[in-house]
Amino acid sequence: NQGTISGIAFEDKNGNLENLSCDDVVYTIPMQAIADLIPSLSTEIKQACRFVSFRHTIVYYYLLKSQPVLPAMWVFYPESRFRFGRLSEMTKFSPYTAPLGHTALMVDFTCDDLDPTWSMDDTQLGELLLAQLKPLKLFGRDQVIKSFSKRFRNFYPVYKIGYQERVEKIRSLEREMHNIYFAGRLGDFNYNNSDQCFDMGYKVAEHIEQGNRLQENWQQTRRNRFEKYRIVD
């Protein structure tokens, strides 16, 4: 419908096209994907979508027969000689996250589709990271019980110079269509924490439920609340 989104079309798990009518849309997938979902968008907004991008994340896990190996819950490594950017260890949050005498080291870093690490299998990637971890002397190869990776597409917003103007152009669809809400790290292109994503979700629900009865409109909520989040990392 003119000025609103009246429904969405999608393929089910069997490849059948389904249509679902809706009163409101809470948009939480990567922001730039909206250009493919609504072909009738203006050229200006489609160009803004082409500018917006995310980095993927790989988290590689080493399950170890070992006491905790890090001095803190997470340690950052900004040096260019390391492919990874951070090491984390859940047993530093709680010793009950692993059996007695065991721990797990999480090695994470960002990449994109063209990065060789994104297409490496777990064996290749594990060997690459082991070689870089060796000088840190955290554990020995004989302590590794199992290793594997988890890969997450579109995880970190890329804040290139000029991104604010493009993002605001895409967000203008909220005012034009009246019933779409950009929310979350991916949907709102907002580098926030998990608890803040929950907060955004609650605020979306509040606005949908109470509508115009709220003193503060959605754009004010974004300025007064979402844009003032403090990121803890």
Describe the structure.
The chain is an alpha+beta fold. The protein is 31% helix and 24% strand. Strands 5-6-7-4-8 form a 5-stranded antiparallel beta sheet, covered by helices on one side. It has a two-stranded antiparallel sheet with strand order 1-2. Strand 1 and strand 2 form a beta hairpin. Helix 2 crosses helix 5. The chain is elongated, with a radius of gyration of 22 Å.
Overall body shape: elongated
Give the rounded overall mean pLDDT: 92
Strand content: 15-25%
Please give the order of strands in the largest beta sheet.
5-6-7-4-8
Radius of gyration: 22 Å
Total beta strands: 9
Straight-line N-to-C gap: 42 Å
Overall structural class, as computed from helix and strand content, comes to: alpha+beta
